[in-house]
Every structure is written in C-alpha cells, then in structure tokens.
Design goal:
The complex is a heterodimer of chains A (about 110) and B (about 220). Chain A has about 110 residues and is an alpha+beta fold. Chain A is built from three helices and five strands. In chain A, strands 4-3-2-1-5 form a five-stranded antiparallel β-sheet. In chain B, the strands form two sheets. Chain B has a two-stranded parallel ribbon. Chain B has a single domain, classed as Nitrile hydratase alpha /Thiocyanate hydrolase gamma (Nitrile Hydratase, Chain A, Alpha-Beta Complex). In chain B, helix 3 crosses helix 4, helix 3 packs across helix 10 and helix 4 packs across helix 5. Chain B contains twelve helices and four strands. The chains are: A alpha+beta (about 110), B mainly alpha (about 220). The interface between A and B is medium-sized, with 26 and 24 residues. Chain B: This is Nitrile hydratase subunit alpha.
Amino acid sequence: MDLSRTSADAATKVVLAQGEAPVFAPGERVRVLTRSPVGHYRVPIYLRGKSGVVESVIEPVGLDNEEEAYGRNAGMKRHYYRVALPMTEIWADYDGSPRDGLHIEVFETWLERI
Amino acid sequence: MPDHHHDHTHDHPHAEISQTERPGYYEIMETAVRELLIEKRLIGANEIRRQIEVLDSRTPALGAKVVARAWVDPAFRSRLLANGRAACEELGLSFYDDTGLIVLENTDTVHNLIVCTLCSCYPRPVLGLPPDWYKLKPYRARAVSEPRAVLAEFGTIIPDDVQIRVSDSTAMVRFLVLPRRPEGTEDYTEEQLTDLVTRDAMIGVVPVTLAAERTAP
C-alpha cells in the first residue's frame, strides 16, 4: 500500500457540508425566483422572475439575511452570486444601449437554473 | 451672511438651536430600541458613541487615496480589482461592518454606477456616509431603470457605444467605482491625483476631471 497516495486521495475525498460548495458556476443562466416573503428580504421586487447570467461566485459563504433578520442563523450559510441581467430583460421600454446591464448579488436560495 | 462681523462677543440675538418638531414615528422607535438595548445591557452608551466616531472618521478622502494608489501602482490596481477589501486593508482601511468590497473599473467601454434600491447600502468604510440624494427614492428607482437619464442630470453624457453597468447593492457586498484617470495627469504626484478624486466619481455619477474643468461654467 502506497501511503503517500492514500493521503493525497483522502484530501480529495472530503465530504462538503450542505451549502459549502457553490451550486451555480460563472456563465450559467439563472432566473430570480418569484416569491413574496413577508418581512425582511434582499431581492428587490423589480428583479423577481427576471433572467440573467452568473457573473461570479461571491466568497466566502454568507448567512441568509432573510433568516438572520429573525435570529435564525444555524446552518444557513450559502453563497451569493453576482448576477448580470440585461436592462432590456428588466424593462421592456428601456432607453439606452442593449448592452447596458444590471448587476446584483443574489442569495443561492433565490436562483434557479434555466 | 456677508455683513456679519464675527467678533465672537455674541451680543446679538441668535435663533435658538432647538428641536421644535415632535419626533417622528421612526425616531421614537429608534430611541425606544436603543434605550431597551442599553437597559438590557446588550450594548452600552459608550459603544454607540464609539461607533459614531468610527463612522465620522470615514470620508471620501479615504476612497480617493485608494483610487490614486490604483492609478500609480499597477500591481495594487490588480489586487484591488481582485479583492477590494483586502487591498484597502493594505492601506490601513479597516472594514468594521463585515461587508465585502468589489471595486468596479471604468474604462473607455464600460461605465459603472452604484445604487442601493432597497435602502442605502454604501461603501461606508471607504467613503463615509452617503449623500442624501443617494438615499432618496428618485435616485434609487431611476438609477436602475433609466441610468443614462440620471447620469445626464449629473452632467455625465455616456456615449451609446459605452456599456453602462448598474450595480445594485443589497446584501453583503459594497461597491466602489475606480474612475478613469483623467488625461493630462501623467506628471501628477499620487497626492495631486488624490485631490482630484471626488465622492461622486467613486459612486459613478461623474468622471474625475481636472480642477480647472470642474470650476468652468
């Protein structure tokens, strides 16, 4: 048994906790969910249901602000993603370049892959 | 007051500095919560005062130092764009509020604009308190829906072939715009460059201009 190999394999076989690894990768197309939570939220209404592209994964993982607002923190750390949405996707009558965009950090629980 | 000779004797009547209006709903709520937190010994009056001192020590002059350093030091600029917070910390700028910082670079093809549509998130550790217009609803609503019209009202005309990127700060990350270094500043020292950088340029509503241009009509 080659011990040097075993230790290298062990390092690659660690099991990550839920939420530890990002669910979405840069370049993936995502949609902001259409939900209407009561109370504290961080996803502006004007972006709900809108589609965009994941620009980057924000490190490190963060607490779910919506839960934190009510004192519920345990186990809720997940990633935020910087998402790029074309202005023309958000506003049908947008006046400007079609390349103009809106960029925002969205918590993992608010995104779905499309 | 052009006719006011300020001889410090104060033998003339002054309007009394006083709070004449009744406190509003949210003022009363803030006072009640603050008193409750102190009464329950969760925070002390000294901690509140200390935090006010922390906030008062943060001004746009700090952000200007960061920008000027990025202009003269390409390695620092790279680190700043890769991790805004870590690069600012190199300069002794602490982040007391657990926020991250993404620095967004303006180029000849990209113009960045910062807003917080939900409230008034702002890179306070490096810029201090936001201006009032930043917190008011017209800017917050219009910056994300008609940024070019908003910029034009600040006197900033963005050509159609320049892409506008509006960053809406809502969560754990704050933004700072790294404006373009104006032409004609090749011989400027870092300190001279620092003096050119204004708060509004780091929010992205105006470019950095030479002092002479700024005072022009």
